[in-house]
Design goal:
The chain is of the alpha/beta class. Helices cover 36% and strands 10% of the residues. It has helices at residues 7-16, 22-32, 44-55, 72-84, 99-106, 110-113, 115-131, 174-183; strands at residues 36-39, 62-65, 90-93, 136-138, 155-158, 163-166. It has a six-stranded mixed β-sheet, sandwiched between helices. Strand 1 (36-39), helix 3 (44-55) and strand 2 (62-65) form a beta-alpha-beta unit.
Length: 236
């Protein structure tokens, strides 16, 4: 059974909030999950949710996984977001192992040869440890993003982390995301204007040609489209 809410309650919430607005989903999540957090990657979707949390004045801590390998543009947006949204608490989550120690133990540039292992060390393990202190987490997942995310629900049981997962933007299209960004003057990563629809770590993210799969620029050359935060990639 997940921490906080029961599986039956989560299923009822998913049915009730299937066609509700993201703001309604986030507000209900904050009301019914006492210990809730939001995982922010500083992508356009996540910046939309940050803006909603701020405008709704919800006391939901926003954490970000700092792999020490993010783009300079991502770090710049992180600073801008903290300056823009004064009423939002941003929490930096770092890996337990430094890049230097990782290179010494596993070899230089692990992401080039075993990207799943690098993601596990720098993203998944820090996430697992951080989420131990919460009963629910919010993500920016949209069904349109990839086949692996096509069945995401507004509220769902996260069996992997044993808590409630909340996905307020599941029905949003890419156009919906950008309409919100422009209408509300939401700050966003400048890389989005240069062919980067999905932005991860700098060594593992390439620009994408117009019309291609938005996630095809992630881990180019590997049969990998997920870092492991939302789908277990440890056996791939």
């Amino acid at each position: 059974m997940p921490r906080g809410l029961s599986s039956d309650v989560i299923a009822d919430l998913a049915r009730t909030y299937e066609n509700k607005s993201p703001q309604e989903v986030v507000t209900e999540a904050a009301k019914c999950i006492s210990n809730l957090t939001f995982a922010c990657s500083f992508g356009a979707e996540d910046m939309v949710i940050v803006d909603m949390i701020a405008k709704l004045n919800l006391k939901i801590p926003v954490f970000y996984l700092d792999t020490n390998l993010l783009f300079g543009e991502t770090y710049a947006l992180c600073d801008l977001a903290q300056e823009t949204y004064k009423n939002v608490q941003f929490v930096q989550v770092l890996p337990a192992v430094t890049l230097e120690d990782q290179a010494q133990k596993y070899g230089q540039d692990l992401f080039k040869v075993r990207p799943d292992q690098c993601c596990a060390l720098r993203k998944v393990q820090p996430l697992e440890k951080h989420l131990e202190g919460f009963d629910g987490w919010i993500t920016g997942i949209r069904r349109e993003q990839s086949p692996a995310r096509a069945n995401a629900q507004t509220f769902e049981v996260d069996e992997r982390f044993n808590l409630t997962k909340v996905n307020p933007l599941v029905l949003f299209t890419e156009d919906d995301v950008w309409a919100y960004v422009h209408e509300h003057n939401v700050p966003y990563n400048s890389l989005h204007d240069h062919g980067y629809p999905s932005i991860g770590c700098a060594p593992c993210t390439n620009p994408v040609a117009k019309g291609d799969d938005p996630r095809s620029g992630r881990w180019a050359g590997f049969a990998k489209t997920e870092c492991g935060l939302h789908q277990d990639t440890s056996a791939s």
